[in-house]
Amino acid sequence: MATIRVRNTGERIEGEAAVREFLSANNVYYDHWDPAKLPEHLRGKFVLSPEDQETILDAYRGDIEHLAQSRGYVKWDVIALSEATPNLEDLLKKFEQVHTHTEDEVRAIVAGSGIFIIKGKPETGYFDVELQAGDVISVPENNPHFFTLTDERKVVAIRLFIDPSGWVAHPYEDPEFVKA
Q: How far apart are CA 98 and CA 142, in angstroms?
């Protein structure tokens, strides 16, 4: 279950209802899918073949199609990151820059964990959303944010897109952002 840490106050927000309320108040979509849908043979596996990726998409097809239909997504795929990922550190450096997109950035975590750092309302500032298996988040278009791994350093996520060309980041220089 997702937990939140507000950077400028240190406040921690836990529990599904409180997390949903906080994220909704900051215009971030949140949902929770059943992590048990991940097939047993793929649990704990962070290097995935194309067949493994298709199996994951098939397992969550109903959830994906429901979300896609309700929010306009037309393409989806699976991403897996772990210590086995070639050039992981370089990839994370690219991810760990505050940026925006011209469409929502959607991730459904199916294994492992990750953190979205998101700019909230002016009175909130930046906050960290630590996501676990089952957590689904959509950072709205043009909202400054970035993604990184937790200390676990492993994640498998389904990504959904409106633009079939996929993920395009636009750097966002923000004097309000301070690395924690």
A: 11
DSSP strands (E only) in the chain = 3-6, 12-13, 29-32, 75-81, 99-100, 105-119, 126-132, 135-139, 145-149, 155-161, 170-171
The predicted model scores a pTM of 0.93
Q: What is the token pair recorded at 14?
A: 């836990």
Residue 32: beta bridge partners? 135
Assess contact for 23 and 31: CB atoms under 8 A.
no
Q: Are strands 135-139 and 99-100 parallel, antiparallel or unpaired?
A: unpaired
Tens place of pLDDT for every residue, the chain, 180 residues?
Answer: 999 999 999 999 999 999 999 999 999 999 999 999 999 999 999 999 999 999 999 999 999 999 999 999 999 999 999 999 999 988 888 777 899 998 999 999 999 999 999 999 999 999 999 999 999 999 999 999 999 999 999 999 999 999 877 678 888 888 888 776
DSSP codes of every residue in 147-162: EEE-TT--EEEEEEES
Structure tokens at 122: 């002016």
